[in-house]
Write a structure and sequence with these properties.
The structure is a single chain. The protein is α+β, with helices and mostly antiparallel strands. The protein is elongated. Strand 1 and strand 2 form a beta hairpin. The protein has one domain. The chain is built from two helices and three strands; from the N terminus they run αβββα. A three-stranded antiparallel β-sheet has the order 1-2-3. Helix content is 58%, strand content 14%.
């Protein structure tokens, strides 16, 4: 159970870190007049900017990101706990 919890926590942390990194990877250059800032991995959760300065936040994408992170954590946690069991 301890290996599962540790692996699950590490996968959740990795997905959280991927969401933070996605801001820097998906965002347009800051010097551009119509730069759009974006965040979210694997689904686009937040987007703001552009010539019309639109703003969008998707709760469905946020819940999708959370579901994917939890699902991946459970799958990887079970795989690790079974593979290292003696």
């Amino acid at each position: 159970m301890r290996k599962f919890a540790l692996t699950f926590s590490l996968v959740l942390f990795a997905f959280g870190l991927a969401n933070v990194v996605s801001y820097f990877v998906r965002t347009d250059g800051s010097g551009a007049a119509d730069a759009i800032r974006r965040a979210g991995f694997p689904f686009l959760v937040w987007e703001e900017g552009g010539l019309s300065h639109r703003h969008s936040f998707s709760q469905l994408a946020l819940w999708g990101d959370i579901a994917v992170a939890i699902g991946a954590g459970v799958v990887v946690g079970k795989m690790m706990s079974k593979s290292t069991r003696r």
